[in-house]
Amino acid sequence: MNPELQGRTFPPTEPYVVGREKVREFARAVFATNPVNLDPVAAQAAGYADVVAPPTFAVVIQEQTLAQLLAEPGSGIDFARVVHGDQRFTATRPIVAGDVLTAQLTVASVKTLGGHSIVTAETAITDASGEHVVTATSALVVRGED
Amino acid sequence: MTTETARPAASAPDFDALTVGDLVDERVFAVSRDSLVRYAGASGDFNPIHYRDDVAKAVGLPGVLAHGMLTMGFAVQPVVDWAVDPGRVVDYQTRFTRPVLVDPELGAVVTVIAKIGQLDAEARIARVDLTVKVGEETVLGKAQVRVQL
Q1: Within an 8 Å CB–CB cutoff, is residue B76 touching chain A?
Q2: Which Gene3D superfamilies match (chain A) (predicted)?
Q3: In this prediction, does ipTM exceed 0.90?
């Protein structure tokens, strides 16, 4: 685990277009029952342009940035030893079908704890106008050598 | 999902009527191997420990596990329904404390109890705390949802 990763910001991802059927597919996969997640008419009645993504949908976009981090040759992170420790989503507004989103990861901290390393990665997700939508933060625990 | 305690209300919860400790909702989720495959496809997380027993065993796990993000994803649903408008959920965090083993035949039964944990009167944000268990074991720690009302 390379401690110099702390503070590193990766390049933004290619724009991700949030599709209505992707949102509905994800919503069904997490047992969503709120019609605003599933039905465009209900979403429009609630004041949204289209179906609203469930709170954890941002992980789909965040995942692309975590792949950048894990693929970084100098990271010293062995994917086989990574365990997902904590997760957080902090939203300015919900993701709505039709959004075009870009994600950018910053390594907030790298800590060592009893042979394990904990990497906290913050992915800021912004919309086509550059406005903040949601930040997805993951703490990844990299287990030490056995 | 096997039980549902209440239909979503027609309007948002009244912040001023809430008290710390109030029960928001209680739900039981039946997770099967099918649920894991469906979530893998929907999320793009195709780590084989979530659908292949041989791979799970090879890396020292007792069996196929649910994606932590799947458990996090459904555990918040009672709160999303309570909030009526999913956009009111402004913050959601958890710690993955224990994996959810999903038996090929029996699946896994996950119970979620959501209660009011804290009320920020100035910001009008209710913190809903989730207790997420398989049997007697807690699988998500410090699972907190902040709802703007």
Answers
A1: yes
A2: Hotdog Thioesterase
A3: yes
Residue B110's CB is within 10 A of a number of other CB atoms, namely 23
The verdict on B99 touching A (C-beta cutoff 8 Å) is: no
**B13 touches B82 (CB < 8 A):** yes
- pTM here is 0.94
Structural domains of chain A, with CATH = 3-18+54-142 (3.10.129.10)
Nearest chain B residue (CA) to A23: B42
Fold that domain B15-148 belongs to in CATH: Thiol Ester Dehydrase; Chain A (3.10.129)
Taking CA atoms, what residue in A is nearest to B140?
A86
A28 and B CB contact within 8 Å: yes
Print pLDDT tens along chain A (146 aa): 778 889 999 999 999 999 999 999 999 999 999 999 999 999 999 999 999 999 999 999 999 999 999 888 888 787 778 889 999 999 999 999 999 999 999 999 999 888 889 999 999 999 999 999 999 999 999 887 65
Q: Quick count: other Cβ atoms within 10 Å of Cβ A45?
A: 11
Domain assignments of chain B as residue spans, ordered by start? 15-148
C-alpha to C-alpha distance for A27 and A56, rounded to whole angstroms: 9
Phi, psi of B144 (to 5 degrees): -130, 135
Cβ–Cβ of B38/A28 closer than 8 Å?
yes
